[in-house]
Request: fold
Amino acid sequence: MKVLIVGSGGREHAIACSIAKSPKVEQIYCAPGNAGIASVAECVSIGAMEFDRLADFAVENKIDLTVVGMDDPLVGGIVDVFEGKGLRVFGPRKNAAIIEGSKAFSKDLMKKYHIPTAAYETFDDPKAALAYLETAKMPIVLKADGLALGKGVLICTTLEEAKAGVKTIMEDKQFGSAGDHLVIEEFMTGREVSVLCFCDGTHIKPMTSAQDHKRAKDGDQGLNTGGMGTFSPSPFYTQEVADFCMTHIYQPTMDAMKAEGRPFTGILFVGLMLTADGPKVLEYNARFGDPEAQVVLPRMKSDLVEAFEACIDGRLPQYDLVFEDNAAVCVVLASDGYPVHYEKGFEITGFENFDGKDGYYCFHAGTAFKDGRIVTNGGRVLGITATGDDLKTARANAYKAVEWIDFKGKYMRHDIGKAIDEA
Reply:
């Protein structure tokens, strides 16, 4: 098979590495890719939002399967374009990707079909939002309705903070048109868990659990980011919790989307909060999480390409999904100043330390080639993942491996998985 991956981050690098393990695959392309992906795939200089150019490339190069890693092209309708040209593509169509593209849509869906989630209100007028806040209980959560690179959620502890948040999202347009509509949600407490699921439009198969660390600084302080690190599995995601989620969240979501005429085929990412009242949905995404993919996929024993094909063909129940009985931790190496202001173009050294070491992975997120060297090219630069027999061992291995890499402005959190480690 010839496979094309659409995207350029650490998630796409993890997907490429997993696809490369499949005996069914002969050639991998990635558009646009990055310096790390270039070691397992041929990178193609076509942007992820250039749907027609990507589809033409797939036709000309006889691509057997296209895998879309990113949210923007999915929400924009890349799958519809590919299918319109008779191409085989993995991901939800535009009318299903709205489950991530609009938080208001997903909240209304959950309310209509009685899927447990936080209480909420939706606003398109900042004055109405401010008036509502005057009577609301603090802390409270503000969510830009559209895509915002994982950063469009503000947790506000005071009324003043919340009012400032409305201004930031709806008036200052910090997240662009994503802030045209605003969801104001009750603040839930509990353990967060992320579960990625394979979906074939009717059936759903959850993968192993993971937990992300969104804040920029140690102790969950600082601004929200795309994710500073993650671990898998979550010890709090018990079989009892998994069974509840399958009965009350996962399958009902699939059934709801189908009933709405929006059958969901692809990866459904379910962000959960394990509250005192049981698991509730924090958010849905329509693709692999980043950096969740970097800890979930290295633990997957089953053939990833076979999973994609089972989803496309509507035969997911026949697919045998198996994970290693181990753990994985990913620590993100970022550029100092992320997620606000940071510099690019610094040489990265130490990649050779990963050569031939089983259980250690260096996934490239924001890298590029410059004068034959690999340099920093983004806020999140690398995802250093290590496995181990348990979370404590995996965490120690990951923090050992981050020392193998060096670049100017290298920044990371030092507490990824620490709370679990000490539990």
User: Anything to note?
Assistant: Residues 327-422 form a domain with the Glycinamide Ribonucleotide Synthetase; Chain A, domain 4 fold (CATH 3.90.600.10). The longest strand covers residues 265-275.
